[in-house]
Amino acid sequence: MGRSFFREGGESGLTPRLRAPNSGLNSNSIRAGLKEYLYHVKLFSRNARLYLIGSFLIGINFHVFLLLLNLYLKEYGFVEGDIGLVLSSRAVGSSLIAIPAALILSRIRLKPILVASSIMFAVFSYFITSFQQLNLLIGFSLLSGMAFAFYRVAAAPFYMRNSTPKERTHLFSFSFGTMLLAGMAGSLGSGKLVTFLGDWTGDLILGYQYTLYIGIVVGLFSLIPFLMIKASDPSAEENRIELSRRQFKKRWRFYGKLSLTNFMIGAGAGLIIPFLNLYFRDRFNLSPDLIGLYYFVVQFSMLFGSLSGPVLARRFGLVRTVVITQLLSIPFMLILSYTYYLPLAFAAFVIRGGLMNLGVPIVTNLGMELAQKKEQGLVNALLMLGWTSSWMVTSAVGGNLIEHYGYTVTMNITVGIYLLSSAVFYLFFRHTETRNESDRTWSIVRENHA
After folding, report:
1. Angle, alpha carbons 278-181-175 (nearest 5°)
2. pLDDT tens column, 241-285
3. CB of 238 closer than 8 Å to CB of 359
4. Ordered structural domains, the chain, with CATH
5. Which of 114, 329, 414, 420 might form a disulfide with 268, Cβ 3.0–4.6 angstroms?
């Protein structure tokens, strides 16, 4: 079969030792921190690097649609309620396929699934761009959500198989950062392209369509690194993933806690996050290129936050880092809710994005560390299912709330959900880590969630 590049880790009960950094920032400590970070990045396996490259390319297509699809549909004449239905259908597709995808991926080689899902995601994205009937848009959006779900479900178990505990937290943060880099490229480039192509064709709608097509083509280049991955068949343990009554009876508390907390935070996000581009368009009358620039800056803020996640996790632990940063983001959501002063809204948008998204890769990392190796694919699917199942409801609700009550009411509801979800996350997982006071390190305790 040839050499396998899989590097197994996480099964033996070994947990990352999260050392606290030296107090006080100076040039020496910063250089030492950068040197340490680069050291861990150099430990990434060949397979992990190829997956990161493919993620960047497919991520550009994803973020081009994330930024422009709402604006395109609004320009075409759809109201917020209809746009919410289109976004909701994508989440429905992801939710329906998440668990089956985890089972499929545990039984066959990964490469064919990555290739097929990349192609199908591009095809359905093309159909979404080319058709304007609401029913067709809903259907193709659902199918594109299914296609993209395979790629998302595969990511975390793939990284677990192709990393060791030593560099794993950095790999998860770097993976999230790669998607943010893709978002930066997609946001800045696509916003300017819409304006340029709209002026060139004399039709802003054509400018949106052509830019979305370009994003699709860039996403297809992800096939090159995905085809270069050298992956063996799933291991015997991964092949035993099953949805049995006995398994759920034993592990239902763990599964339920992970799913519920991700559902709650996704519910808050789904109400308003998909519509923030429309928020800047409607409240401040911004053009597509300026909105793209704003999203470029916020992606940079999110990238900085995600890369600083491991540093904060060493100091405060995984769970406390997630809770602290989520709570710190809430005042900035309130500013977005009430302000009509553009510079203040922009600053709140950027800071909130960095803080709120800092914990995303940390939550995934925590779930993978608490999971047994044979259930890592299932746990990642449950994390995604919790998020997307909430989005399929709240993005449709959010569109209607904005259409009838405006952005302020919707954002305030989101703040309430964020507060509740942070409290529940802390209550559920506060005992999953212990701190050794002698060397100020954090260790994960699996027994609490067995």
Report:
1. 115
2. 556 677 777 788 888 998 899 899 889 888 998 899 999 999 999
3. no
4. 41-229+243-449 (1.20.1250.20)
5. 414
Which tokens in the block code for residue 254?
């763990």
Grade residue 299 by pLDDT with cuts at 50, 70 and 90: confident
Residue the block writes with tokens 């370009």: 214
Distance (Å, whole) CA 358 – CA 378: 23
| Residue 24 buriedness (CB in 10 A; 0-12 / 13-18 / 19+) | exposed
Cβ(355)–Cβ(47) below 8 Å: no
| Contact in structure between 397 and 274 (CB atoms under 8 Å) | no
